């Protein structure tokens, strides 16, 4: 057995290929990829918030969306500097990505301005300055002068110098933070503390501090840029903004199928990466002097068996927590075994090392997921001690890309095996602790656990034991790593899932997705058979079959994933719908008649009571009467009263029988009722042939005079049409006078047994004088009403007219809407422009009118 000690993160002397350079540099750039992914993820939720937010908050959420994208792209820029060796390619990518990075500074300053309650105007003005610097940066990039080909070379990457177009932008953000944001936050800390969650405050500060920590590397100092870790403050900011409707973890992951879609995305990436990696990364000499047969067969079976089962389990019921936890545990187990396959091939050890490190980042969370699965299976809440397991999982995941995961390797007859370092021991110890605690919980509760759940728990206990046994060869004990046989506990789990129905969901529509997935499988199998002779020329029969399996099987599973998983939520919903419909149908036959009869009676009684009350009183007054048993009198300062009266009513009535008279009067007043209802007025009463209504009550508004004039125009138009019809039929007709006045009134309910909503005050008397002092077919309004409506309607000043007991009063005729506000030639119907101005007045706006020429 040969052993080999690692010298970490040091590239060999001399020229190496871009491909080798990439593998050596993976740990340095990986945090930037995480920052980029988190930025995209959070920008999506910020954009959804922008779409649903009120007008006042839309601009804030738009800036938040752009800010998340920009900070995420900072991580991607730093990753290109870590992974790309060719300087010209590096400069090109930096130029392109800075189009998305540039809005970082101005949007961040606007967020800070918004957090201070828009009190620190300097932050807003400074954001404008930053936008100007961003446009200067864009100009430099467009001219091909964004970044120079002179670079600083560090172990963690190559950093090109920014040109004179870029430098002002790079200086303004940190300078503004220390000179403006920090003092403003200190000054308005009480306001921020009152209106925002502290995580938002800390997140914004940390965003600027980590971004500022990019400066040393740009200036040539060997300091790892803090921008790689911007995902941490971005998550803090997101929590501070969205905590009420986004970071409900249970709802996000399970009720909204967030875990389901995360698993889908994760699996898709891994499967495509495996297929393309084998296609383009493995040459024929990878199988020379290698141990791929027979030692590579068990891990390949384990990887693809675990992935296949995870697809079935996850798709069986996407919204079920136990399904998603089970699928996640299978995937993490598969991740561990993935790293065993390259160790059995003749490829560069740095590639083997990096693949293992990447898989261990995910696999480090296996103890946490497994424990949660066990407690979900036995129907108990997660224990408090699980937080300690979680902490160790996070620590191990952070250490996985570091030199502390492995310290070399052992060369056994069956393959290379990494020599475990402190980080690997931490993963193993964490798994052992979880195993002991889960075993203890299982023994204590085994009497309450059903048979299928026992199979689930047993399969994962076996999986954990196999994984712990892998620690022996990684520390020099020459035992074949039996963790490669993870397909055994995986298939045991599959048996529990499929045979006993613990997690699966059978249904009619699921069969469709199953058939589609099988059709894709057959298609790819045919393609593999046709492709086999082509690679047979380069490889032996066994190598060709193994190579083809590693290319095709991930694509087959990807096809199965897309067709089976993506159609599964719809299938689940349809199956549940079918079940519920059948259930409801059975119950409906027994309960329907009784429920409908009882409901109809109750509804009729309620509606009749409501209808009677609302026919007598306005809605608000009726609600107050129902709640309190009485109605308090209320004074309204700007109510508008409208009176109508038929001229010659007595004379025309004399020639009509009683029935016809009542029907005629009822037809007119019914039409009046509909008109005033459309125009936001309240009918008060009729006295013989006189009709009285009012606006601006029982809910005050600023448009009562306009509403009354619009209603009067409609009533006038109706009476003119009625007059034309009666004249054509040679029948007698009534002509109408209308009077309107605006002023203060007192409104209330009088009577105990027969309620009546009425108003009192001099305004009522004046409105009556407007009607009696008017002319038939005309709308007569007072000066107070005229002042409120003169910009909307064409009016005619009549002079001072004597009103009984009122003296001389200024009176005006309202003829029609002004042309600019009317959509018809007669000026009866308002247009869209009128409605826009009207809406602004309703909301409290003060309109400044231009002088009429």
UniProtKB/TrEMBL annotation:
Keywords: Coiled coil, Lyase, Membrane, Nucleotide-binding, Transmembrane, Transmembrane helix
Coiled-coil annotated residue ranges, if any: 580-615
Compartments where found: Membrane
Family annotation (SMART domains): CYCc
SUPFAM superfamilies hit by this protein: Nucleotide cyclase (SSF55073)
Superkingdom, taxonomy of origin: Bacteria
InterPro entries: A/G_cyclase, A/G_cyclase_CS, Cyclic_nucleotide_synthase, Nucleotide_cyclase
Guanylate cyclase domain residues: 640-771
Spans traversing the lipid bilayer: 28-47, 59-84, 96-113, 125-144, 164-186, 198-221, 227-246, 258-280, 292-313, 325-343, 355-375, 384-405, 425-443, 455-472, 478-496, 516-534, 546-566
Family membership noted in the UniProt record: Belongs to the adenylyl cyclase class-4/guanylyl cyclase family.
Protein name: Adenylate/guanylate cyclase domain-containing protein
Native species: Leptospira yanagawae
């Amino acid at each position: 057995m040969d052993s080999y000690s690692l010298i970490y993160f040091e590239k060999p002397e001399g020229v190496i290929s871009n491909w080798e350079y990439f593998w050596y540099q993976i740990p340095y750039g990986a945090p930037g990829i995480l920052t980029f992914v988190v930025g995209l993820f959070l920008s999506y939720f910020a954009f959804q918030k922008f779409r649903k937010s009120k007008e006042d908050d839309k601009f804030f959420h738009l800036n938040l969306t752009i800010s998340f994208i920009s900070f995420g792209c900072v991580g991607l820029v730093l990753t290109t500097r870590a992974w790309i060796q060719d300087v010209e390619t590096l400069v090109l990518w930096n130029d392109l990505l800075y189009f998305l990075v540039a809005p970082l500074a101005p949007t961040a300053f606007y967020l800070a301005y918004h957090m201070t309650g828009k009190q620190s105007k300097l932050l807003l003005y400074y954001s404008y300055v930053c936008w100007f610097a961003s446009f200067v940066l864009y100009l430099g990039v467009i001219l091909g002068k964004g970044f120079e080909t002179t670079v600083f070379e560090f172990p963690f990457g190559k950093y090109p110098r920014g040109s004179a177009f870029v430098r002002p932008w790079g200086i303004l953000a940190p300078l503004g933070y220390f000179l403006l944001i920090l003092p403003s936050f200190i000054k308005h800390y009480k306001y921020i503390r009152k209106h925002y969650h502290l995580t938002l405050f800390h997140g914004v500060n940390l965003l600027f501090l980590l971004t500022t920590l990019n400066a040393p590397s740009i200036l040539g100092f060997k300091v790892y840029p803090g921008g790689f870790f911007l995902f941490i403050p971005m998550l803090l900011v997101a929590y501070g903004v969205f905590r009420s409707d986004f970071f409900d973890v249970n709802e996000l992951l399970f009720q909204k199928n967030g875990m389901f879609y995360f698993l889908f995305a994760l699996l898709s990436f891994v499967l495509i990466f495996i297929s393309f990696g084998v296609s383009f990364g493995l040459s024929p000499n990878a199988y020379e002097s290698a141990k791929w047969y027979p030692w590579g067969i068990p891990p390949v079976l384990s990887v693809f068996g675990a992935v296949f089962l995870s697809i079935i389990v996850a798709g069986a019921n996407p919204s079920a927590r136990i399904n998603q936890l089970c699928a996640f545990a299978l995937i993490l187990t598969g991740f561990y075994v993935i790293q065993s396959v390259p160790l059995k091939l003749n490829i560069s050890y740095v590639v083997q090392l990096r693949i293992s490190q990447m898989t261990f980042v995910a696999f480090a969370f296996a103890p946490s997921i497994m424990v949660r699965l066990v407690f979900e299976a036995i129907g108990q809440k997660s224990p408090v001690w699980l937080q300690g397991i979680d902490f160790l999982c996070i620590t191990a995941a952070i250490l996985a890309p570091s030199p502390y995961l492995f310290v070399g390797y052992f060369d056994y007859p069956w393959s290379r095996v990494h020599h475990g370092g402190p980080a690997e021991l931490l993963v193993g110890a964490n798994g052992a602790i979880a195993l002991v605690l889960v075993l203890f919980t299982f023994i204590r509760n085994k009497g309450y656990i059903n048979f299928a759940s026992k199979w689930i728990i047993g399969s994962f206990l076996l999986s954990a034991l196999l994984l712990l046994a892998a620690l022996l060869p990684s520390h020099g004990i020459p035992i074949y790593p039996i963790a490669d046989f993870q397909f055994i506990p995986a298939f045991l789990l599959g048996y529990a899932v499929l045979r006993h129905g613990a997690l699966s969901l059978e249904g009619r529509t699921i069969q469709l997705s199953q058939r589609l997935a099988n059709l894709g499988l057959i298609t790819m199998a045919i393609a593999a058979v046709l492709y086999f002779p082509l690679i047979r020329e380069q490889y032996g029969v066994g190598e060709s079959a193994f190579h083809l399996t590693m290319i095709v099987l991930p694509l087959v599973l990807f096809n199965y994933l897309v067709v089976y998983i993506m159609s599964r939520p719809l299938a689940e919903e349809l199956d549940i719908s079918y079940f519920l419909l059948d259930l409801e149908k059975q119950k409906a036959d027994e309960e329907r008649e009784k429920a409908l009869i009882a409901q109809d009676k109750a509804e009729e009684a309620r509606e009749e009571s409501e209808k009677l009350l609302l026919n007598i009183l306005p809605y608000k007054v009726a609600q107050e009467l129902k709640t309190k048993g009485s109605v308090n009198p209320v004074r309204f300062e700007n109510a508008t009263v409208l009176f109508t009266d038929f001229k010659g009513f007595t004379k025309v009535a004399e020639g009509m029988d009683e029935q016809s008279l009542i029907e005629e009067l009822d037809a007119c007043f019914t039409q009046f009722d509909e008109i005033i209802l459309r125009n936001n007025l309240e009918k008060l009463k009729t006295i013989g042939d006189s009709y009285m209504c009012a606006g601006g009550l029982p809910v005050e508004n600023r448009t009562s005079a306009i509403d009354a004039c619009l209603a009067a125009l409609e009533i006038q138009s109706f009476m003119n049409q009625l007059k034309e019809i009666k004249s054509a039929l040679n029948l007698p007709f009534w002509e109408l006078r209308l009077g309107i006045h605006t002023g203060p009134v007192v409104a209330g309910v009088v009577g105990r047994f027969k309620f009546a909503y009425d108003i009192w005050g001099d305004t009522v008397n004046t409105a009556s004088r407007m009607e009696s002092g008017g002319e038939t077919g005309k709308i007569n309004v007072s000066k107070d009403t005229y002042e409120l409506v003169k910009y909307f309607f064409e009016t005619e000043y009549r002079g001072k007219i004597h009103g009984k007991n009122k003296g001389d009063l200024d009176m005006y005729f309202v003829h029609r809407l002004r042309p600019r506000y009317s959509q018809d030639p007669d000026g009866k119907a308002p247009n869209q422009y009128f409605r826009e101005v009207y809406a602004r007045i309703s909301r409290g706006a003060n309109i400044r009118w231009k002088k009429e020429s």
